[in-house]
Amino acid sequence: MIRIQHMASPSNPSTVLVSEFILICFPNFQSWKHWLSLPLSFLFLLAMGANATLLITIWLEISLHEPMYYLLSLLSLLDIVLCLTVIPKVLAIFWFDLSSISFPACFLQMFIMNSFLTMESCTFMVMAYDRYIAISCPLRYPSIITDQFVARAAMFVVARNGLLTMPIPILSSQLRYCARNIIKNCICTNMSVSKLSCDDTAFNQLYQFVISWTLLGSDLILIVLSYSFILKAVLRIKAEGAAAKALGTCGSHFILILFFSTVLLVLVITNLTRKRIPPDVPILLNILHHLTPPALNPIVYGMRTKEIKQGIQKLPRRLL
Fold first, then answer.
1. Per residue in 235-264, pLDDT tens?
2. Strand 16-18, strand 4-6: pairing
3. Which CATH number fits domain 46-94+113-176+200-308: 1.20.1070.10, 2.10.70.10, 3.40.630.30, 2.60.40.10?
4. Global pTM value
């Protein structure tokens, strides 16, 4: 049931304002929803299970109480929150047609998506710096990457991205939404929601564009620089097999980070050229971007390391 409110405004006393939004996932492929829910459910369970396992392992294994693993824990927490913010609602739409979402829930989802995605990007940057110090300055690593460093880095990640992205949902929530409340998306993105408004949204969209490119762009530049220095340091390693091992580990990290950043770039391009690209493409990419990195991060970053593998093998005995 679509609810609307009759509210008077100074400019138009008879303005009709909506009081909730309706999310329409894949408007051109409604019959695919139930089939698509199967791989999405699998990825969701994989992401939640892998990240929860990683967090519990690091929490219970005393030997893993080190800065590098604290950063992995932060990444897992961000992934879990992102998944829980987006995917349960998407699956509820697919399975039960629960497509309505209240104003507060929509803008809260918008805030969490914008802030936590940029927090994850910033965490990748800190982890790239951590790997650079570990490979290029191994003797100084314990004195540089300390528990205090991780605490300050975590506060920086949360404060920078939370404060700078907060105006996006605030600006969007201050707009008037007249009569139209059908969002052709599975989630409350700023672009999908604000274009329903009967107000001018130019400043809203400009702010998101500038902030997104400033935060994500600066993170990506620093990540690329860090891995460039890592590559340079790895090529100087003389020990047999050490260079190949370091390249394999850092290479998988860098590929995952590029995937994370590339999907964001594709989303921007598809939104700018949406008249030439089916609207279902950016919708699917947006959902996968909230599922694929959370599912792969704990595997690529955590479970491939010897210490975490050993901790996971001990986990059943600790929990029983």
1. 777 666 666 666 666 766 777 777 777 766
2. antiparallel
3. 1.20.1070.10
4. 0.87
